[in-house]
Amino acid sequence: MERFKTLEVGLLKPNIYSVALNRPKKLNAFNGDMWVEIKECFEWLNKQGDCRAIVLSANGRMFTAGVDLQTFASIAGEEETDESRSGDETNSDDVARKGLQIYSIGRLWQDAMSSLENCSRPIIACSHNGCIGAGLEMVSAADIRFVTADGYYQYKEGDVGMAADVGGLQRFPKIVGNQSLVRELVFTGRKLLPEEALRLGLVSRVCKDKDDMLAEAVKVAEQIAAKSPIATVGAKKFLNYTRDHNVADSLEYAIAWNMAMLQGSDMLRAMQGAMTKSKVSYPRLPNSKL
Question: Which PANTHER family match (predicted)?
Fold first, then answer.
């Protein structure tokens, strides 16, 4: 099992992995290590042949307070390191070089969030209490979202003088489908409470508390894990592709994918199981070495 400094990764049940944000004393604020480890973690999980579903949660009293302010300060140039120096002069006032540095960091953060979407295994994001800023952007990249009755979502980037740029403003509007409300939430920074989030389609379940939420998530993960992993991987790829392409392109993508996938053994196993009314066991996916 991979070990991380800011994440707690484990095997909940056969074929079901857990990932928990694990900086509880800092309210799971996203620091430099966490951004790097999120990407590494979900890329690693995507290579595990026995992984069929992932439950994402957080340790401590809230899901996350968003980006660690010290990380913001570093990007803004308030902290200078030896790497920022060139000869006897610093690059801190060089707009071009500083811009490229910000671009590099920003792409790393974007890639971290996209790693959830690019992971071919379904991810159930379970948020309790506050899910702020980068947290909302993170769960927007997941497949299924649950929240506790005391939970809330909030865009707070405006309060630190920036527009969110790691995926939330690209994914969140497509999930809820209400441009007026999206803009209200983003421009005002007000809290989005559970019942409203449920009504909008951001979440599919509002749970009594964190324990109840995680138990519900495991039940759903077990249902997913019992299905053909080939079918599940394909379905996630189709859904993601269709979101960003027209119907004709999406149909072509789907049939091209299934040209190979339908020649596998999973469909035959599923049909035999249905005819005999017996439980079907599917082979694990191959471990990726890439």
Answer: DELTA(3,5)-DELTA(2,4)-DIENOYL-COA ISOMERASE, MITOCHONDRIAL, ENOYL-COA HYDRATASE
Name 205's bridge partners: 146
Q: How many CA atoms lie within 13 A of 35 on its CB side?
A: 19
Please tell me whether residues 233 and 219 are part of one structural domain: no
103 burial via Cβ count (<10 Å: 0-12, 13-18, 19+): exposed
**With a threshold of 0.85, does the pTM exceed it?**
yes
How far apart CA 143 and CA 152 sit, in angstroms, is 18
Mean pLDDT per 10-residue run, the chain (290 residues)? 91 97 97 96 96 98 92 60 49 80 88 96 98 96 98 89 84 94 94 97 98 98 97 96 96 94 91 92 83
Domain harbouring 243, CATH code: 1.10.12.10
Give, for 162, the enclosing helix (H) or strand (E). none
- Is 27 inside any structural domain? yes
